[in-house]
Task: inverse folding
């Protein structure tokens, strides 16, 4: 025995090493490539300051005026994609997809590895481009643009094949001689109409999933971030090209509402993912119904955080600050309502008052290092609405302790800033509890107990994400599971999206369907039910008694009755009796 054990260990270790070597040899490595970012993305870049920053060009409805929302400086003009150009680009994408659908999972992984390597090696350039186009800070760009995209890429590379591999299913007793499985086949050309808050991630994320599922993809970018779209498109196209595949698989287009309608009503599109508002989501559904195109809708949220008195405030408070201030709260899953249990309420408000007063807004690529915590807002035209929501709350009894209005930046008078705002003593009758703000407004409400907290949380028609903070794990889990929301996190905020194995989406007016996770990847596929004979010599026979034309319909009916009893009775004895009756009828 002492001599056998070393031999066994050596064989096992050798087998593991051989497997690792062979697996590594069969892996298609990432291929390096370079792509120069736009010159305007460099820190300190100076451009023409627009007198009235806006995306429309007087007299030229076909043009999109691009500008940095943090400074109001012009980034140039982009010509909106026309309906005819969209048609041509989608036709090219569909043609390229017929070849792409035949690629192996390993070939698709190579493309994603190549893109992943580029993203990791060029984080600063990506963050600077995203910051210039959307006004966010570099920290917010890293967390919301790069980290999330890297997580999507890594999860898909590591798990995508297992998710889309043929899925064997039990055929049941009646069909025991058959093999049954689900085959996940590409839909063809899928479309993503994405929001402006995270221009890099929102454009590239859908492309990653679509490509791995074997599809071509057209991404309709928001007109508010049209400037950066060519850079993101070239990034994905270069990854395809250097790996030997047709870059026409990926089409990024930019335009106004008419372009969105052209995408959603096109018979060339086989699936639509839309990220935006409930109002526009309804229009997308109506347009998609023309050709019965399936849709996934993520329509924003009014996410709540329930903070119980026993919560660890040293952890909770910084997390909720980031949940409100990150990206100027232009987050689908930003925390827009903080519900605090009564015993902890006053101390919580005092600490948040101190912190919110200290938040500094500015242009991260232009201001002094270390002087900016919160960036600009993409939609300057939204300030009237935000101020009205604050005014309505104050008129109904809320207290605005910090901010409450747009901010005139002394160095960037054309920049689009809203003052970090703290609104406390908010009650459900106030408009701000039911309207998605998408701005740096911390709304604090008071609750008494679990039932009160849930009632307040459910007063909003939105139901996307949520958070529960409590030292009592059982209570936190109980309340989290009772929340009507598509996602929830215990003692944290938004981390479910970093767990890319989890689906992302909501219920109610927050939409339906999911992206991310196995559910999101499979949504981009046709789930085809497939059967075949388990053994070549065992096939489905049609007994003469029920073969057309049926000679005796009563006898045929009695025969089929006994087939049901034989195959689906709860007891073996009933099945045996049915088999004997079948034999008798067949004589």
Result:
């Amino acid at each position: 025995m002492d001599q056998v054990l070393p031999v066994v260990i050596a064989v096992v270790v050798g087998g593991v090493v051989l497997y690792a070597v062979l697996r590594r040899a069969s892996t298609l490595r990432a291929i390096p490539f370079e792509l120069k970012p736009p010159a305007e993305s460099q820190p300190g870049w100076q451009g023409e300051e627009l007198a009235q920053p806006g995306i429309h060009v007087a007299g030229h409805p076909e043009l999109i005026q691009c500008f940095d929302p943090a400074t109001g400086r012009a980034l140039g003009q982009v010509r909106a994609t026309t309906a005819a150009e969209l048609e041509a680009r989608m036709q090219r994408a569909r043609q390229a997809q017929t070849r792409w659908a035949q690629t192996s999972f390993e070939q698709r992984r190579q493309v994603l590895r190549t893109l992943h390597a580029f993203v990791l090696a060029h984080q600063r350039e990506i963050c600077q481009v995203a910051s210039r186009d959307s006004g966010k800070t570099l920290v917010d760009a890293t967390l919301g643009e790069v980290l999330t995209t890297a997580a999507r890429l890594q999860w898909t590379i590591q798990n995508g094949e297992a998710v889309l591999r043929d899925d064997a299913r039990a055929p049941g007793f009646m069909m025991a001689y058959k093999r049954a499985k689900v085959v996940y086949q590409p839909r063809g050309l899928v479309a993503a109409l994405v929001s402006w808050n995270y221009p890099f991630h929102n454009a590239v994320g859908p492309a990653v999933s679509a490509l791995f599922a074997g599809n071509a993809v057209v991404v309709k970018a928001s007109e508010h971030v049209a400037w950066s779209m060519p850079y993101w498109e070239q990034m994905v196209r270069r990854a395809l090209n250097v790996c030997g595949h047709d870059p026409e698989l990926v089409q990024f287009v930019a335009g106004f509402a008419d372009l969105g309608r052209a995408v959603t009503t096109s018979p060339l599109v086989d699936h639509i993912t839309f990220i935006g508002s409930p109002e526009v989501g309804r229009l997308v559904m109506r347009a998609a119904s023309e050709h019965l195109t399936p849709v996934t809708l993520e329509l924003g949220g009014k996410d709540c955080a329930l903070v119980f008195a026993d919560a660890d405030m040293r952890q909770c408070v910084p997390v909720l600050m980031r949940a409100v201030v990150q990206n100027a709260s232009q987050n689908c899953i930003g925390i827009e309502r903080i519900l605090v249990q009564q015993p902890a309420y006053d101390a919580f408000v005092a600490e948040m008052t101190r912190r919110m007063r200290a938040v500094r807004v500015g242009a991260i690529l232009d201001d002094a290092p270390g002087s900016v915590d919160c960036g600009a807002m993409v939609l300057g035209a939204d300030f009237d609405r935000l101020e009205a929501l604050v005014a309505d709350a104050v008129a109904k009894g809320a207290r605005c302790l910090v901010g409450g209005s747009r901010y005139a930046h002394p160095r960037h008078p054309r920049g689009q800033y809203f003052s970090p705002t703290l609104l406390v003593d908010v009650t459900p009758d106030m408009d701000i509890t039911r309207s998605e703000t998408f701005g740096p407004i911390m709304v604090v409400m008071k609750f008494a107990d679990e039932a009160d907290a849930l009632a307040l949380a459910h007063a909003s028609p939105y139901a996307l994400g949520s958070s529960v903070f409590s030292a009592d794990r059982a209570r936190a889990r109980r309340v989290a599971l009772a929340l009507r929301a598509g996602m929830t996190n215990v003692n944290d905020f938004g981390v479910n999206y970093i767990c890319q194995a989890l689906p992302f989406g909501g219920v109610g007016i927050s939409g339906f369907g999911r992206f991310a996770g196995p559910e999101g990847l499979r949504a981009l596929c046709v789930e085809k039910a497939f059967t075949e004979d388990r053994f070549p010599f065992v096939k489905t026979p049609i007994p003469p008694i029920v073969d057309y034309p049926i000679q005796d319909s009563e006898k045929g009916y009695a025969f089929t009755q006994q087939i049901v009893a034989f195959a689906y009775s709860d007891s073996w004895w009933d099945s045996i009796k049915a088999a004997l009756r079948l034999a008798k009828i067949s004589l």
About this structure: Residues 138-164 form the longest helix (27 residues). The chain has a mean pLDDT of 95.
